[in-house]
Design a protein that fits this description.
Strand content: 15-25%
Shape: globular
CATH class: Alpha Beta
CATH topology: Purple Acid Phosphatase, chain A, domain 2
Number of strands: 13
Order of helices and strands: HEEHEHEHEEEHHEHHEEHEEE
Number of domains: 1
Helix content: 25-40%
């Protein structure tokens, strides 16, 4: 049974007694999984994404939720989107099934929308839906009470429901500012729908409005961080805007992210502390500095100066959804955030 008061654990206690198999990951690492964390844990949250994928994973999803619920260190959960695989139906019934699962989280849950549950639903094997209809249904099912998280112990968040984007939210914990943004794969929903060779007018209108709202959310999050003298900023979204497997980025795949990356770069460069970006989408754990000096993404996105204080983490997902990240906001020590990969045990 989870205890509902503030829990303070040393990282040694977390790694030594809760999950012996957990591996501490460097908060500024280059993809390696070497031990690196220190400092007293002030606040801990879990991050998952691209789960559940396929019938077997759907059946096991309640077990994943139960394991996260049983982790006494975790006080908050973030799901980075893609609640289904890319070749299954985007049905009302499926959405309700996952919402019922989400309701079993004991901690507050922030769900960041992914492309598989709406952007790509035009595909024949997804049911041939109008994606905008699916987005409206996602908002209806998963965001019935804007300004409040999901989960059994709901918490208040600041929502962009007034802009028609209730899934975009921000909040503060342990002197760190957070924002969840609806930024999705499939080039931020600019990939043409089935039967089309270019985005439709209604498609581009939606992208323009949602992207504008997300850019505003980024600016507002950093404004909050400066005003409240927060130690770090954490951004959470679905799309991998800096895929490490891409040698030469194509505008057909990444142009839709340019305003988002520009806003993040501008704000991070002017911010005194570290900025952490958590995303899903590409399914394999990765930690890097995507806008550091020498990165190909600087010129592609038109960023004139490196942004060395931006760290990015991609979570495992899809068939590789074998763990969750337990992320700790450290009270002391050289790193504000450190994280641990906790294997699922079912």
């Amino acid at each position: 049974m989870k205890r509902w008061h503030r829990i303070t654990l040393t990282l040694a206690a977390v790694t030594g007694t809760l999950v012996a198999a957990a591996v501490v990951l460097s908060a500024c690492g280059s993809g390696g999984r070497a031990a690196s964390a220190s400092g007293d844990a002030a606040y801990t949250f879990a991050v998952i994404g691209d789960i559940p994928y396929g019938d077997a994973a759907v059946a096991d999803f309640p077990k994943a939720i139960a394991q996260i619920n049983a982790d006494p260190a975790v006080q908050w959960v973030d799901h980075l989107g893609d609640i289904k695989n890319g070749s299954s139906a985007c049905s009302d019934e499926y959405f309700q099934q996952i919402k019922t699962d989400f309701d079993q989280f004991q901690d507050p849950l922030v769900y960041t929308v992914g492309d598989n549950e709406w952007t790509d639903c035009h595909r024949v094997d997804n049911g041939g839906y109008n994606p905008l209809d699916r987005l409206a249904k996602i908002r209806q099912v998963f965001f019935p009470n804007p300004g409040h998280t999901l989960g059994q112990h709901s918490a208040a968040v600041q929502s962009q429901a007034d802009l028609g984007v209730p899934e975009n939210v921000r909040w503060q914990r342990a002197d760190v500012g957070f924002a969840a943004l609806d930024v999705v794969g499939s080039n931020n929903s600019l990939v043409p729908w089935t039967g089309q060779t270019t985005p439709t007018a209604e498609q581009t209108t939606e992208v323009r409005g949602r992207t504008s709202a997300s850019v505003q959310e980024i600016h507002d999050t950093f404004a909050d961080a400066r005003r409240e003298h927060q130690r770090a900023v954490v951004l959470l979204l679905q799309a991998d805007m800096f895929s490490p497997t891409v040698v030469v980025p194509s505008p057909d795949d990444f142009s839709g992210f340019q305003p988002i990356v520009a806003a993040i770069a501008q704000e991070a460069a002017a911010y005194h502390g570290p900025v952490y970006l958590f995303n899903g989408d590409t399914h394999v754990y990765n930690s890097d500095a995507p806008l550091a000096a020498g990165s190909k993404w600087l010129s592609f996105y038109g960023i004139s100066q490196p942004v060395p204080n931006l760290s990015r983490v991609t979570v495992d997902g899809s068939d590789n959804a074998i763990d969750y990240l337990r992320v700790t906001i450290n009270r002391t020590g050289p790193k504000v955030l450190t994280w641990t990969s906790v294997p699922f045990t079912f």
